[in-house]
């Protein structure tokens, strides 16, 4: 029996390749995701190990607003007196202590007057302390005057600067000054940058003034250990001397901490990739199930002959499962290898964004290997169980028949599908209303169960729907034949269309969510925002683009400006929890521009020691007028604030608002982040915009936008997410296309004699091609229509359920995208039918008629 199974498997090479391909497609995205994140993780481990190779011990001040139990780690933003450096230098085991200024916030301006773009968001400003093991001059000399700088070679290349050129720099004090480049530096090993960052080195005095705001201040101390002392000993000695206000870490700790932060980001990235893999896997399950169903159906006579020759039901069952096991193992192996290639390609593309980073050796994570073989083998075996049981029940007398046994009634399948769908709806309802614990799992489980339930109901749905869709193509004889072929086996059509349905449904649901959210945001901004012009910049790091107070004053004096309202923001701790707080320079102007309504107290004025908030935030935190909170600001530390005003519910201007006096003293960047300008009646918005443009022409960080442009910019983030969703659709459709090709190819093999008979009675090659293509298009369009309906319904249900939680408006269906998906399904169906139709056309008529 074993020999017969192996010979049968190898005798039909096309069928073997197609069934193995189904497993490969199901496995490769999951393995690729795990390989990619493992490779990137080790890449950044190596990167930070290199960065801190020459660091023995580093000292920085703790942040006032760090999360409880945490610290800022190396390179904190809080300055400390230069005297601390002398104190550290006297500690036992310290060979040398060097005070340094080194932190993000030195923004280079290019030759075109615009900020030099940086993918990493890391634009460091530092004091030049001379060459050492890590840093050396490639050209020129170090800065000696306060208007001289040294820049890293990576920045010089990107911005096309050289030694002797002048370059403007905007520093953390938000002053723009012109400096002369007197030197270009490189890192150990001749690196132009460590990871794509820019680095600008000033004289120590200028770095202290521009980056820290005062002379005789540092934010980092680089400590060299004496011979005979370990780094850990020196760290402990320094920490004991300085007390709890400082963070003291070894180079190894700094490397691990920095790498850990990157890995946390990579974890979320991995979740997205695994989401793609999950969709691919779900679609692949249908593909494998369909493949084995057709294979067993084609082998009915062969299996019955084995039964007639004495094979038992158990032997037939084991034979089919053995075939599935072998295909699962081979498919898993190739799936892992293809995923390995995808992971490697993704790693090189990702790391290519960071100029100085180099990809570590390609990872072979145990999790990827286990997941690949577990998924591939398990899914294949599960998919083969039902066809195997069906094969084992084939009676020997079936060997005398020319056709496979007819499909069983769909009653049990329909009832089972209805039960699964009902349970899915219940799980979704429970999860979305938040009535139970594990809300997220209830929603995810409900979505998965709904897709499976609808897929089980698809055979019943397919009969009327396929008949209706097929009627569109039934105006020719080949079209009628293609329509009847797609409807003759509801189970097969349903499983093939189910693979298409799942991808379309998921993408349509996500598109509905983000289209509804985008529309709601646009409606809120359009309704509540009274500004005609908005001045703001694009934030690419923790350093916000700001508008100078002088520029704000000039805007207020414009003849066309009726009201100019500004706001700024910063991270803070509110009652011990990390929060984001905002501040208005003129609350009365903001109330007018944002159409804020008073719910309680006063909202048009805030004095030092006071704050206001919106109604929803007050209810969520159980605050009432007169309550006090403790806010820990970046610069001034803890301060008690009293609630003096509550605004009505609003999507614009919500949150915790502190007085401008407190913000000016306590915020890291108290300068305005945005300015909202309403134009006087009769004044020209275009002329006022030109005037604002002229005011901010020397501030490359910010730009001025009309209200419509501002709304569109806020909606652009959803457009970007939808673009990622389209990639998900492409992956699902790619597998679905292969599924349709697989099904039709096997179907052509199964109907070889039938096709030969049709050709013999006069069906021409072109008509044969049209018949198979029609069948492909009908199946694909059926899956698309079903997916659009399920996805739109699912998206609408989620939007409705979360309307009060997230702030959705009415359900907005992505009609344009849905039409595009439908039209694309016609093209996909035609493409998917090309290969099977070519095979059908090339059949030898006489051989086909004699085919067994």
From TrEMBL:
<dbReference type="Pfam" id="PF02687">
    <property type="entry name" value="FtsX"/>
</dbReference>
<keyword id="KW-1003">Cell membrane</keyword>
<protein>
    <submittedName>
        <fullName>ABC transporter</fullName>
    </submittedName>
</protein>
<comment type="similarity">
    <text>Belongs to the ABC-4 integral membrane protein family.</text>
</comment>
<feature type="transmembrane region" description="Helical">
    <location>
        <begin position="769"/>
        <end position="802"/>
    </location>
</feature>
<feature type="domain" description="MacB-like periplasmic core">
    <location>
        <begin position="493"/>
        <end position="694"/>
    </location>
</feature>
<feature type="transmembrane region" description="Helical">
    <location>
        <begin position="268"/>
        <end position="296"/>
    </location>
</feature>
<dbReference type="InterPro" id="IPR003838">
    <property type="entry name" value="ABC3_permease_C"/>
</dbReference>
<dbReference type="GO" id="GO:0022857">
    <property type="term" value="F:transmembrane transporter activity"/>
</dbReference>
<feature type="transmembrane region" description="Helical">
    <location>
        <begin position="720"/>
        <end position="748"/>
    </location>
</feature>
<feature type="transmembrane region" description="Helical">
    <location>
        <begin position="362"/>
        <end position="389"/>
    </location>
</feature>
<feature type="transmembrane region" description="Helical">
    <location>
        <begin position="814"/>
        <end position="835"/>
    </location>
</feature>
<dbReference type="InterPro" id="IPR050250">
    <property type="entry name" value="Macrolide_Exporter_MacB"/>
</dbReference>
<feature type="transmembrane region" description="Helical">
    <location>
        <begin position="493"/>
        <end position="514"/>
    </location>
</feature>
<dbReference type="GO" id="GO:0005886">
    <property type="term" value="C:plasma membrane"/>
</dbReference>
<dbReference type="Pfam" id="PF12704">
    <property type="entry name" value="MacB_PCD"/>
</dbReference>
<feature type="domain" description="ABC3 transporter permease C-terminal">
    <location>
        <begin position="276"/>
        <end position="394"/>
    </location>
</feature>
<dbReference type="InterPro" id="IPR025857">
    <property type="entry name" value="MacB_PCD"/>
</dbReference>
<keyword id="KW-0472">Membrane</keyword>
<feature type="domain" description="ABC3 transporter permease C-terminal">
    <location>
        <begin position="727"/>
        <end position="844"/>
    </location>
</feature>
<feature type="transmembrane region" description="Helical">
    <location>
        <begin position="438"/>
        <end position="457"/>
    </location>
</feature>
<feature type="transmembrane region" description="Helical">
    <location>
        <begin position="317"/>
        <end position="350"/>
    </location>
</feature>
<keyword id="KW-1133">Transmembrane helix</keyword>
<keyword id="KW-0812">Transmembrane</keyword>
<feature type="transmembrane region" description="Helical">
    <location>
        <begin position="410"/>
        <end position="432"/>
    </location>
</feature>
<feature type="domain" description="MacB-like periplasmic core">
    <location>
        <begin position="17"/>
        <end position="239"/>
    </location>
</feature>
């Amino acid at each position: 029996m074993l020999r017969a199974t192996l010979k049968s498997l190898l005798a039909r090479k096309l069928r073997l390749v197609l069934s193995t391909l189904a497993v490969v497609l199901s496995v490769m995205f999951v393995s690729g995701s795990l390989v990619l994140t493992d490779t990137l993780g080790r890449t950044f481990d190596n990167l930070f190990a290199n960065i801190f190779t020459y660091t023995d011990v580093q000292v920085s001040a703790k942040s006032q607003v760090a999360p409880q139990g945490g610290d800022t780690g190396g390179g904190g933003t809080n300055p400390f007196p230069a005297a601390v450096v002398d104190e550290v230098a006297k500690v036992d085991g310290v060979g040398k202590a060097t005070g340094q200024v080194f932190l993000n916030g030195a923004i280079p301006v290019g030759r075109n007057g615009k900020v030099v773009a940086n993918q990493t968001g890391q634009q460091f400003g530092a004091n030049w302390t001379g060459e050492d093991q890590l840093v050396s001059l490639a050209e020129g000399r170090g800065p000696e005057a306060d208007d001289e700088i040294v820049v890293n070679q990576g920045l010089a290349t990107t911005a096309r600067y050289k030694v002797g050129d002048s370059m403007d720099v905007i520093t953390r004090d938000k002053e723009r000054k012109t400096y002369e480049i007197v030197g270009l530096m490189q890192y150990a090993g001749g690196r132009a940058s460590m990871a794509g960052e820019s680095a600008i080195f000033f004289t120590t005095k200028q770095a202290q003034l521009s980056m820290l705001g005062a002379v005789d201040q540092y934010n980092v101390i680089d400590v060299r250990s004496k011979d005979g002392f370990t780094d850990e000993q020196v760290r402990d000695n320094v920490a004991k001397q300085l007390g709890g206000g400082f963070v003291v870490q070894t180079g190894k700790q700094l490397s691990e901490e920095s790498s850990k932060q990157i890995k946390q980001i990579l974890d979320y990235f991995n979740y997205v990739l695994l989401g793609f893999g999950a969709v691919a896997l779900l679609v692949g399950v249908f593909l494998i199930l369909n493949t084995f169903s057709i294979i067993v159906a084609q082998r009915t006579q062969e299996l019955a002959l084995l039964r007639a020759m004495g094979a038992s039901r158990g032997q037939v069952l084991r034979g089919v499962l053995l075939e599935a096991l072998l295909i699962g193992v081979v498919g898993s192996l190739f799936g892992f290898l293809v995923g390995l290639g995808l992971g490697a390609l993704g790693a090189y593309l990702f790391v290519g964004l960071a100029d100085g980073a180099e990809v570590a050796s390609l990872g072979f994570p145990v999790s990827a290997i286990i997941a690949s073989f577990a998924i591939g083998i398990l899914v294949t075996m599960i998919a083969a169980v039902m066809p195997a049981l069906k094969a084992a029940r084939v009676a020997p007398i079936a060997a005398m028949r020319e056709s496979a046994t007819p499909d069983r009634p769909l009653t049990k399948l329909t009832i089972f599908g209805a039960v699964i769908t009902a349970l899915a709806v219940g799980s979704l309802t429970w999860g979305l209303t938040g009535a139970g614990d594990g809300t997220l799992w209830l929603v995810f489980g409900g979505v998965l169960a709904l897709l499976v339930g609808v897929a089980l109901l698809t055979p019943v749905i397919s009969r009327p729907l396929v008949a209706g869709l097929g009627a569109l193509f039934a105006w020719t004889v080949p079209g009628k034949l293609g329509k009847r072929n797609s409807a003759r086996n509801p189970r097969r059509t349903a499983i093939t269309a189910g693979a298409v349905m799942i991808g379309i449904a998921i993408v349509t649901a996500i598109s509905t969510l983000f289209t509804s959210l985008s529309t709601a945001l646009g409606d809120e901004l359009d309704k509540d925002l009274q500004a005609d012009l908005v001045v703001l910049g694009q934030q690419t790091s923790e350093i916000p683009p700001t508008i100078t107070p002088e520029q704000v004053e000039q805007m207020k004096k414009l003849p066309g400006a009726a009201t100019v309202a500004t706001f700024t923001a910063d991270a803070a701790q509110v009652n011990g929890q990390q929060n984001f707080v905002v501040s208005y320079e003129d609350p009365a102007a903001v109330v007018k521009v944002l159409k804020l309504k008073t719910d309680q107290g006063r909202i048009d004025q805030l004095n030092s020691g006071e704050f206001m908030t919106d109604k929803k935030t007050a209810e969520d935190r159980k605050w009432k007028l007169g309550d006090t909170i403790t806010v820990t600001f970046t610069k001034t530390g803890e301060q008690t604030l009293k609630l003096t005003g509550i605004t009505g519910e609003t999507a614009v201007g919500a949150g915790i608002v502190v007085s401008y006096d407190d913000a000016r003293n306590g915020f890291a960047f108290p300068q305005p982040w945005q300015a909202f300008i309403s134009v006087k009646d009769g004044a020209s918005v275009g002329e006022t915009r030109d005037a604002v443009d002229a005011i901010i022409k020397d501030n490359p960080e910010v730009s001025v936008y009309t209200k419509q442009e501002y709304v569109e910019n806020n909606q652009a983030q959803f457009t970007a997410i939808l673009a990622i969703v389209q990639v998900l659709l492409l992956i699902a459709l790619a597998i679905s296309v292969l599924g349709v090709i697989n099904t039709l190819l096997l179907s052509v093999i199964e109907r070889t004699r039938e096709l030969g008979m049709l050709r013999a009675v006069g069906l021409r090659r072109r008509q044969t091609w049209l018949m198979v293509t029609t069948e492909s298009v009908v199946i694909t369009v059926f899956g698309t229509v079903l997916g659009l309906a399920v996805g739109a319904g699912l998206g609408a249900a989620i939007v409705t359920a979360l309307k009060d939680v997230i702030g959705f408006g009415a359900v907005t269906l992505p009609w344009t995208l849905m039409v595009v998906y439908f039209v694309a399904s016609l093209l996909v169906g035609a493409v998917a039918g090309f290969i099977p139709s070519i095979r059908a056309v090339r059949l030898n008529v006489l051989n086909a008629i004699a085919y067994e």
